[in-house]
Amino acid sequence: MPDLATWGMLAAFFGGLVSFFSPCTLPLVPGYLSVVTGGTVTDRSSRLQSLWLSICFVLGFSVVFIAFGASASLLGQWLMAYRQEANLVAGILIVLMGLFMLGWWSMPALQRDWRFGQTLEGGRPTAAFLLGLAFAVGWTPCIGPILGAILALSSTHANAETGMLYLAVYSLGLAIPFLATALFIG
Known about the structure:
The protein has a domain of about 130 residues. Helix content is about 75%, strand content about 0%. It is mainly alpha-helical. It has seven helices and no strands.
């Protein structure tokens, strides 16, 4: 039987998948891919270029999420003296985020969409990476309930590496369908 850490990693991975297929992320994937690639994808060479640029995009959002994981874990270390209370608060946050996802509770701060007025020229690795960073920061309210639950889980661990690992696995769950879409888009 898997241990608690394995279940946490599985939950983080499936949380990433759910975030990708959520109603506020999935419809935007073609738009993100068109900006990331800088245009249409017609042949094998442009598919490989699209995959490379999508990897840059994934690296961008992964950097932000992994930093969130490290921050949550460091905060968790600081609260180690209050571990039982932190576990209780984390559990309450997970329940509240579940109620939020079910639509039984509303919090306007989790439903904001922040955007910067600057545009990035697609089709370049740097632009794809920066767009990935912007996606992670700007789209956090949309994926916030799931991300918040994983951050709460990572905050209860004794080291930053575990929190970073949880968020890296979350990013992987979000990245795999995105990369698959980029590879097969036409």
